[in-house]
Fold each of these.
Amino acid sequence: MLYACNKLALVVLLFWFVFVTCSAFAQTETVLYTFTNETDGSYPSSVVVDSEGNVYGTTSNGGTYFYGNVFKITPSGVFTNLYSFTGESDGFAPFAGLAIDGQGNLYGTTAQGGDGGSGEGTVFELTPSGTKTILHNFSCPTDGCLPDATLTLDTQGNLYGTTLTGGANNYGGVFKVTSSGTFSLLYSFTVPTRDSTSSVVADSQGNVYGTTYNAGVGFGSVFKLTPSGDELTLHAFTPAHRDGFYPYAGPVLDASGNLRGTATSGGAVGVGVLFEVSPSGKETILHSFAGGADGIFPDSAVVFDNSGNLYGTTSYGGAFDLGTVYEVTSAGVEKILHSFASNKKDGNFPSVGVVLDKSGNLYGSTGQGGSSTACQGGCGIVYKIVP
């Protein structure tokens, strides 16, 4: 009897250990908020998170005046409409996400509207209390037109962004707005560069880095822009080398000056890659997506944690072919953290990336899906993943 009891206790103990171990490696996805296309807006873009775990973002449609809004969602899922665009001098159609500084001020763009008189877009600042200031009104084509990419904020408080068209050659450009509000067009692209704008990133020396969708040899490139305005192509993508092509999203910069990003197509089976480009321009494929459950078309930017693990989304693929959230470890091992499923009402087709909070939790949004029927295919959600 004693042997049987001890054996039973051992089985229970082993079951408990396996359960706890598996739970430790499980990922839990939670829908923080589902948009309804009313005063809360619809079709959210990428999000940012503050030190308290509050999530901020924009919707390109809906809001009080149906021209988009800036929102806040608390960790418990309480939604606040911080600002609704009126479609007049304050701009409208905030297609891009937001940048946030250490004081909680938010920075973004509207692709249209503003005081320019012809609907050419704005750069704005929004305080934590919801007070909005226009930092710049675009004058097309001189300043560039259609600023619809997420801004980047450097350590000196300068903002960097891109425009889809306009500039000296009407192919778009890279701009800077200083902390004092001075605008300058840093560079005008000389050839058609992309079908959509992507964000850029700046280093401590004032160099700016970004991607072009179809420049280089026609399949996209990674470029460097010096403070003096000289542009250098660090890497031109070539499908023949299976190194990926058509980088839709902008890169991120690590402490060693390496640029990491995604190419929407190409790779081993043609459905996209995760790449790294060194300061000297050497490209390394960190992961080649295999399609199916592995994910298809990684068309969003990535983020990395203190251990060098990278996180991002694919707009298709996964268990239900509705997109994924993935992790690629510093050793190059890929893990699917979440596969979106329409029957769970958790959103689908994530076209923007994720952000990390100080505890390692991931936050993101999908422009479609969710439980609301006010939009065809759903109005979108904001989600959280706890690793």
Amino acid sequence: MKKYKVGIIGCGFIFDRHIEAIQANCESYKLVAICDIDKKKTDIRAKEYNVKGFYDYEEMLKIMKNEMNFVVIATPNYYHYEQAINSLKSGNDILVEKPVDFTHSRIQKIIDTARKFNKNAYGVLQVRYNPTVQMLKDGIEKNIIGELRSISLIQRWQRPSTYFDSWRTDENIGGRILYEVGIHYLDILQYIFGLPKALSTVTFNNKHKHVNFEDTIFSILKFPNGASGSVEVTIAAEPSNLECSISVMGSEGYIKIGGRALDKVEISKFSNSLVESAWNRLQSGYGDSIPPNSYGTHLGSCPNHPYLYSEITKGKGIFLSDTLNSVKLIEDIYKVEISK
């Protein structure tokens, strides 16, 4: 089995999730280097994990060239593209936090670079691994609720004003809220139901008024089979996250998955007992979801990084080619935004 010698670029908010994943898969992964422009943070973390610390990622790529073969990119969103390209050219497989980039065309360039240098490039869209998500996908593929009629995503989350005290306040670095907050759940829409077309979008700024872009967005979609769709994403809920749910209505019934992070089947009802029995049999084949991460008031993100790392060792994982449609959907939603 291949041993991944890992360097992490970025020691910020998501850094600990990757450390947990490496430790959970220690037979396959070994942390060998970290990098962050914050020298104090780098020094503390490097000492904590007894690895080499760098303040410049290009220096890390150069010095660790023969000692590292897997680079995790966990920096502010804007920097992913350049760091991914250079990491691949230096001979490393890569894992890029979401969003990989703000445009699908630049993600394609990363994919092309990985192919050119015969390297693997993965993305972090780990909500796909939730048992409830896999269960719903399986049920839709088995046509359990019949002809799809309507699909709705609701993500009503809380983010404190301090959430935008750093790079996230700059649209050019962080992107808008669909890139930073909504992408995981928009990914599930296209993953299960196919890539929809956005028909119209309206945005509002109801809470984070010091930021120059929305904290609330509504969009109307049309799915490939003709089903109607809607999206509501907000980070203006108080005092904590309210819900994250996907509701599906079909000719034979409806299903709603929700909880804090699509980790529960909230309700299901069907037109007859045969359909209900088929759904119950399907449900019995899936395990329980792991409770979502808690960050105080905004409990809700999915703790599936260890599973993603495990899948990569099996030659699976989420390849960057699998992340393209999520970004295409976000681009499309913003493209039809109605001016206010």
Amino acid sequence: MFEKALRGGIKYWSAVLVLALVILVGFIFYLNQLHEGLAVTGMSRDVSWGFYIAQFTFFVGVAASAVTVVLPYYLHDYKVFSRITILGEFLAISSVIVCLTFIFVDMGMPFRLFNVFLHPAPSSPMFWDTVVLSGYLILNLLIGWVTLGAERKKTAPPSWIRPFIYLSIPWAISIHTVTAFIYAGLPGRHLWLSAIIAARFLASAFASGPALLVLFCLFMERYTGFKPGRGPVKALLVIVTYAFSANIFFILLELFTTFYSGIPAATHPLVYLFMGLHGFKELVPVMWVSVVLAIISLILLLVPSFRERTFFSIFAAVGVILSIWIDKGFGFVPAGFIPNPMNRITEYSPTMTELTISAGVFAIGLLILLVLYKIAISVREEV
């Protein structure tokens, strides 16, 4: 089936070329980072996880969100998702590759990644995160390719693939749960020291991932021969509505617990994020953008007459993605280090090197997704 990715029109190859150029520029900046070290980034001794790890955290959620279409379709025979389940699985594949690439570029010496396998430490959440992400990537590659191949032959998927499909459902939940444990298990980081971090991560994942799928479905409906139909989009928007509502509820729980307790070490990171602390307020503007987007998007999603109109559904989906990306993929990680355990504030903002390398990683994910979707659409058109 891969030969279908080698055939396309001028728009397809133009997109491939643009993404390849962005990847090349990002790789050049990465070589400079590899030569000079992480000193070329905005990270420091006090803020040792920055934009790379923040993006890793966000895209783990996008990868896990495939379960929102896999579970209803395979466990409950929800036929509405029959045409888009493969899109969710392919989105998971590209997202996991993006996650692993961000870990790679975040390492000052990338070959140290092999130590995870050469010297495994089962007591470390990072070891388990590597295991579950790698396993999830293999599962989705296997399931997506086998089911798409069966569809191309106009036959039912082979029976042996069913156990792997069922295994992928709890596995999807595990990848973001283990990621949450990496943060929640760190003492001295009060922003992360919470029992509901995993629940927050999953709720935000089940909102941002389906919102991305909504945008992809609407794009393909308009610009390709693949027509997902309005049914899957409406069902996805309902999932986004419930998941995003739960995400906001969990955040409000955190705010109440933190500020009602009045413990300074717990309140300082949130005060820094939304109001600034001791004159330091680098992240305040972007965090309030996240809040405004969350409020507007939630209103559009909760009102059916808005949610069912294409223009408002697109705005709501984009708002949900950006709001969660800013909150989880930008503010959550650096704010966990601010202030440090000695109550010292060291602000963080990504440098041009980090942003350019990150753009290259995003382009890798988009290129993989473009190729996989091209294959899926070509098979659908052929059938």
Amino acid sequence: MYKKISVLFIFGIIAVMLIGCGEEDSDNVVIGTAGSSGTYYAVGSGMSDIINKNSDINSVSQGTDGATENVRLVNSGEIDIGFGNWDALTFGYEGTEDFDEEQNIVELMSLYRSAGQMAVKEDSGIEDYEDLEGKKINLGPKGSTITNMSEIILEYHGIDIEDDIDAYYLAFDEGGTKLQDNDLDGTFYVAGVPTSGLIDLSTSSDIRLLTIEDEVIDEITDEYPYYEKVTIPADTYEGVDYDVDSLQLWTSLMVSPDMSDETAYEVVETLMDNVEEFQEVHSVGEDIKLENAAKSPIPLHPGAEKYYEEQDVLDED
């Protein structure tokens, strides 16, 4: 689990560097991402580099346990910016699901869409979600909302996670390794397409990705409007030579409303002024655009909102 002491250690290093460079007045910003094999981590690292090169803000990206944990870390002030999907932002802001009370978070900007992807071995005999009954399935890491999506998909296929499967809660890399070693029958990802964990898995093992039928997708998106349908094109991953229909949702950056308007504005402005470089960080970069940045299921930070108003990209309603 992410430890506050590690943040203090990072800040200590930054402080020494700043004193040596004569920049004691610069802002220090810690960005919470997720596990090292996921898209959050890759995009967060690139984002931190862009901010450091192009602004007066000093940022570091830090691996965490994922979106749900990031909500709590932003709420407690242990990180300044957190990656999270729209379901996590909604749950945290409203104080529902994994949160006993409303969390002190607002949105900074939306980035890209993350898709649910269930991988099984090609020779497993598992053809669809119903075939997962009685199997050992990784539902995603604790501290993330990956488990929410995986549990919902299974539920809508008639599978009870308590009674019908042997559920595991592992990070992407561990889930992929255990599937490869036949210690799991399936492992679930929610990440940008393609995600590095599945790229590695598909190049080292013959895998299949499970598809969701349209009628099930319609039922789920009617009940949970932060989800939408996505089609993962054939040949996105090695050996997966067919289209895969699944669910996706937006990934956003969240901050505390206590962040200064100036810092929030500068982060958004820096990323948008250097959006072409930001887009090159990862293949999900094609979603990172000004017209997408102001999308949000929760209120925007006033500093970010000011920037979007100046750029005339806020919805009029």
